[in-house]
Fold this protein.
Amino acid sequence: MFNIILFGPPGSGKGTQSERLILKYGFKHLSTGDLLRSEIARQTPLGIEARNFMDKGHLVPDEVVIGMISSAVDNHPDAKGFLFDGFPRTEKQAEALDNLLKMKNTGIGVVLALDVSESELVKRLLNRGLTSGRSDDTNEEIISSRIAEYHKKTSAVADYYKQFDKVVYVKGEGSVDQIFDALCSEIDRRLS
Ligand code: AP5
Ligand code: MG
């Protein structure tokens, strides 16, 4: 089993590249953002709680997200590998994920970190906000708050995995194809 974390700030292209990577490699895609939005759409208690945080651009509490990922992993016992997108986002989530995978006798193969400038992130998210219907894309203040959360809590996740020598930075600006090729060559090098 080979598991990947696709890491990066809001708007860095995690979702875009995940879609392609799962087609090529057959990983099971687990995006906590997508899972939370599906809970919101179904108006579950978890979704109702999460929405209050997401609408402000704040992180949802660790316990909520860890519980959600833990059942998602359990629900796919036959997965040949997981692609984690938007998770882990705090050091506590990273430790929980390591424990979860350890219990399944596996771990994280590599953390691919997309490197994108802040001005490009804001431009992409505002642009998507014109059509996406995502409430957290529609104004610059909420986008700034998402980026601030990233610096305050999430960038530490890269430091956490650096101690195990798992982090590789990939340039996240340029064409979607170029970035995809760069990600694939990092994965192929580790799979062969
Ligand atoms: P989440 O859904 O994870 O959103 P995010 O990480 O803030 O960022 P995005 O998904 O918007 O960006 P992305 O990196 O996937 O980029 P994308 O491919 O879409 O989280 C949303 C919220 O949920 C959080 O704020 C938090 O409240 C909560 N949450 C989620 N996970 C959590 C967790 N683990 N713990 C606590 N809370 C959690 O691309 C963005 C745009 O750019 C698109 O329009 C795309 O078309 C475009 N684009 C992509 N690549 C390129 C390119 N190469 N050139 C030009 N444009 C491009
Ligand atoms: Mg995404």
